[in-house]
Amino acid sequence: MLSQEQEIFLKRVQAALREGGLQRSAPLTYRSLQLIGNEKRLGELLHSALFRPGRLSLALLGCIPDIPPLVIEEIGASPVALIFENAAAFRTASMVLKQYASPPYGWLGFGSGASFERSVLHFTLVEHQIEHIEYVGDLDRHGLRIAQQTAELAQSEHLPPIVPARGLHRAMLQSVLQFGYPEGLEYQPKERRSDASDEALATWLPEDVRIDVLKIIQAGRRVPEEVLGPDELLRVWQA
Fold this sequence. Notes:
The structure is a single chain. By secondary structure, this protein is an alpha/beta fold. 41% of the residues lie in helices and 12% in strands. It contains ten helices and nine strands. A five-stranded mixed β-sheet has the order 3-5-4-6-7. Strands 1-2 form a two-stranded parallel ribbon. A two-stranded antiparallel ribbon has the order 8-9. Helix 4 links the parallel strand 4 (80-84) and strand 5 (107-110). The longest helix is centred in the first third of the chain and has 16 residues, at 4-19.
């Protein structure tokens, strides 16, 4: 049985389709205002029975994909993208990679923390062929969850695989050691615990750093990716 709201909504959709009001693609929030009078309500209805297979769809309503913007910069011809969690590391990498005539990456991006868990879908809109996406973020529970959950979404959406950035996690451990913090930097007191999910989080990392990172996060410490300065990046990419 349809609710009164759903019936009104379907009649408005029918009228808009008949009158050609959905021919031009528009954002989900605009279409929601147009059809319901509330910019967020259509997003909620997407999870209702109205949008089950064979019924309504975003394509039928002419909705532009609701994908958060991803900061991405073309660097070279390589079919590999490199994404950093934080802005400072992204800027540093951009400066370093532009020194190469043939950089090891074709695309460089800034994921903006947990936003990357949705903005990774931006790669569905990129016309250039990308074989895989290398990712590096803070070495702590939050940073590893971002990497793991984004990798899972990419797989479910048939995007290029999200894999650990070559050499950069080892470089982070070496850099924090040079800064004089072999056990990582201080973090929030509540993070000083052993979590059953820690080992599962660490499995996303390259094998050569898993044990060291696991010790750091279970001690309630962390390694921010900002320990990667220009010298650290050059050493990795010149190896």
